[in-house]
């Protein structure tokens, strides 16, 4: 198998609100947009967001969403400050294997920023 590109697909209940979150708050460039589907640049791959998902007002449990979107960055502190300046509430957790900044999108999907 020769892989051209890889990507993730995330189904969202409040599609428009989340497209704005991923483009404006996370700063992911929009590659393509169709009715109910947006394809975002995701560091050498893509994140596709589509409508017809299920939202939660709190962080989803692993039973509700057994995945985490993890983004490894070159400058962790700069990335965390950038997110906070855009209004994202980020909780920093330090472990012996590394440091992560955790937050959720408006649907309750967990996202983590990790030091590279």
UniProtKB/TrEMBL annotation:
InterPro entries registered for this protein in UniProt: Glyas_Bleomycin-R_OHBP_Dase, Glyas_Fos-R_dOase_dom, VOC_core
Ranges for domain VOC: 4-116
Keyword field contains Oxidoreductase: yes
SUPFAM superfamilies referenced in this protein's UniProt entry, alphabetically: Glyoxalase/Bleomycin resistance protein/Dihydroxybiphenyl dioxygenase
Any GO molecular function: dioxygenase activity
Transmembrane segments: none
Official protein name in the record: Catechol 2,3-dioxygenase-like lactoylglutathione lyase family enzyme
Classification via Pfam families: Glyoxalase
Keywords linked to the UniProt accession: Dioxygenase, Lyase, Oxidoreductase
Gene3D superfamilies: 2,3-Dihydroxybiphenyl 1,2-Dioxygenase, domain 1 (3.10.180.10)
């Amino acid at each position: 198998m020769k892989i051209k590109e890889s990507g993730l697909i995330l189904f969202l209940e409040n599609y428009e609100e989340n497209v704005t979150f991923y483009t404006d708050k996370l700063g992911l460039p929009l590659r393509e947009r169709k009715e109910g589907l947006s394809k975002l640049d995701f560091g050498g791959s893509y994140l596709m967001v589509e409508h017809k998902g299920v939202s939660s007002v709190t962080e989803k449990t692993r039973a509700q969403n057994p995945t985490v979107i993890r983004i490894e960055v070159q400058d962790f502190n700069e990335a965390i400050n950038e997110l906070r300046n855009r209004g994202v509430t980020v909780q920093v957790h330090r472990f012996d294997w590394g440091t992560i900044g955790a937050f959720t999108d408006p649907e309750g999907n967990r996202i983590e920023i990790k030091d590279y």
